Amino acid sequence: MLGKSKKAAGIMLSSVLLLSTMAACSSNGNNNGNAATNNPSPTEAATEGGEKTGIDTSKKVELQFYMLGNAPKDLPKVEAEINKMALEDLNATVKFNFTTWTDWDQKYKLLLSTGQDVDLIFTAEWTQYQQYAKKGAFLDLEPLLPTAAPALNSFVPKDMWDAVRIDGKIYTVPATYKEYVTNGFVWREDLRKKYDLPTPVNIETFEAYMEGIKQNEPSMQPLALGGAIDQTLSDSYLDFERKIVGPMPYGVFATYQKPGEVTAYWGSPEHLEDLKRFKSWADKGYFSKNELNEKDTNQDKLTNGTAAAMIGDNPTRYNNTMSQMKSLHPDWELGYTPYGRTNGYATPVHPIHNGFAVPKSSDNAERALAFYEKLVTDKRYNLLTQYGFEGTNYTVEDGHYKMVGDANTNGFPREGMQGWAWRNPEFMLFEPSYDGVKAIFDELDKIQVPDIYTGFAEDYTEYQAERAALEQVEKQYLFPLMAGQVADVEAGLNTFMEKAKQAGLEKIQEGYKKQWLAYLTEAGIQ
Amino acid sequence: MLKKKGVLRELYTNRILFLMLVPTLLYFLINNYLPMIGIYYAFVQFDFNTSLFQMDFVGLKNFEFLWKSGKLTELTINTVGYNVAFILLVNFLSIAVAVLLSEVKGKWFKKITQSALFLPYFVSFVILSVIVFNLFNYEQGVLNTVLQQLGGEPVDVYSKPKLWIVFIILFFLWKNFGYSMVIYLASITGISEEYYEAAKIDGANIFERAWHITVPMLKNTFAILLLFALGSIMKGQFDLFYQMVGNNGLLFSTTDILDTYVYRSLRVTFDMGMATAAGVYQSIFGFTLIMVVNTIIRKINKDYALF
């Protein structure tokens, strides 16, 4: 039940003492465990030399596999089938665990810091891979890869292995599928045509489109933002209009073109100007007065017709939203302009974006890697965990993926296990609608430049108290400003800056800037 | 009562009884006392590479974030304030309703009312938050639609922090008072009929009987429920506050409690030390409070005290 998982979050802090002792007890054990699994690997490999996997599989183990999000209905069947194969190949079984999307970040944190039995866990920049890796939550995979997963080791290109390095060490197995998760404007193309509005290609045309919707469809909300307004509005806006190098925190700002020129965005005239613009949107009714309390996702609001645009979404999600919308309203259409088309550059996804790591606390690191190798490189494992059972869950038509039944009846929809990290481009099956995404990707390929932001691993130990305090100040004083709910923007911004400085903003920005510049020098960027 | 000299003797004479106590003691030792070692996390810099006692000792650094934002006083006042209001109102309301219900003779009416009042207890705050949003949403909410139909001006409920003090208390009452009412109803059933009959013979009417017999007899239950509630006075109703307010900073000044503050501050930080520090602060505060209140109750009437 929903209540139950919420309750779990509620008692989380009060039960932290209990959990922490468990961590205390088990982390002792784990250290020994690690030492034991780390050291023997070269010797074992040497003695057994000819063994197929190069690791000791004499003892049967159960691997704990952790993925974010919700488990598909047919997971038990898939798991049983996988276990049959894994038992034969590796003398191991695997338990696929899912966190659900409710409070996944809390659960993720606890999984890693309480020393729970986890052998494989999803990593991404949005799950703070870089910070966790820097703090030593994951196992260094480099020494294990050649023996435990030789095929995987050579399957992932060297530049990708290098890209995920944190402090020179490889802590995660990156996905090799190349995609773009850069933003673009999303709008209702059928309405745009109907009212003869301009195609949104920049903020001015986007504004004109929203104004047109407001005039012609008064019951519709022109722009969907949702409660996470810092990401949906501010990050997207900075990305497009101010060409920020990446979603930098704490109001630190640097452009993609000049990453070494770091300035403070918060409190600057530009910040004031942008906030005033957001306020004007709110005043004109482009988005709800209660956007911060909104419960529906932006994509849902577009699909069901309550909202008419999003300021930024990535090509794949835009495509999913469109398919979903078409299944409900066949005559509606969605339009998309990638920011790259206007700005002239786009960054392909950084290898950190999807990966799987072995936590320090794992007792079966080698077997985990060997299993992960199977998941990626063995077609039987890969197809089963990405698409379910052929015939029952999906069929292949003209080389395209076709779902059996619909999203409600099918127990394992496409990539139902959120298997983004172990996608193998050689085996991947796409729906016919993917051609639209492919076209966008091809367009972006022509203007691609490397992502220089994601490889940066911030270490906030120095200013963690200030950082936590700032988190609250931002929510309390900056969010309402972004949502256009403060009558006097200038005074509101001053209050925010004053409170942020009290919380230690300058110390944080200083610390962040120093690390960022050091990273740029180290990575050889300008 | 044990006298100092007779401890061993006492242990020996009642050895069977003490033996029966062992499982409970063990349970508490393992589940409630052993975990207290984890308090030490509040004083170290968390590190994935070593065990707890090898981590760097950092003193009170983990507690810093609590006052860095200058909000600790406001948060403590909010947390305690809301809890006091919850405790008093819930108890007052449930005693009143329980007394009324106990006097009702119609069996069906009684059962249905009781169930209807108890039902909200099972509704999750997540669901309640969706209902509330649909009621108060500025553009499409029920409230504003009705107001506009009647020719009034729409109200933006989500930008009025003071209003939410009332709302939050109302939602809490709606959800929780049925539960404690059932407890009071149960202890009313436990009151011997003889008192009432005697009072009836002496000519007391129904109000006098309720006021002079039922209410005083509930004092004990009230004292226990009060003490239990006080122990967790620093632990806010996280679900309630977080679901209702979410990211809406406009309402924080009146609706932010320690739990939500800690959650928001540490949601993206994985530091065990700081999370534990917040827990320790809450526990110490709660412990002090319960000791003080218990002492006061002891002074007034020894029998009502918890220990």
TrEMBL record, chain A:
<dbReference type="Pfam" id="PF01547">
    <property type="entry name" value="SBP_bac_1"/>
</dbReference>
<feature type="signal peptide">
    <location>
        <begin position="1"/>
        <end position="23"/>
    </location>
</feature>
<protein>
    <submittedName>
        <fullName>Aldouronate transport system substrate-binding protein</fullName>
    </submittedName>
</protein>
<feature type="compositionally biased region" description="Low complexity">
    <location>
        <begin position="32"/>
        <end position="43"/>
    </location>
</feature>
<dbReference type="InterPro" id="IPR006059">
    <property type="entry name" value="SBP"/>
</dbReference>
<dbReference type="Pfam" id="PF12010">
    <property type="entry name" value="DUF3502"/>
</dbReference>
<dbReference type="InterPro" id="IPR022627">
    <property type="entry name" value="DUF3502"/>
</dbReference>
<feature type="region of interest" description="Disordered">
    <location>
        <begin position="32"/>
        <end position="53"/>
    </location>
</feature>
<feature type="domain" description="DUF3502">
    <location>
        <begin position="453"/>
        <end position="520"/>
    </location>
</feature>
<keyword id="KW-0732">Signal</keyword>
<dbReference type="InterPro" id="IPR050490">
    <property type="entry name" value="Bact_solute-bd_prot1"/>
</dbReference>
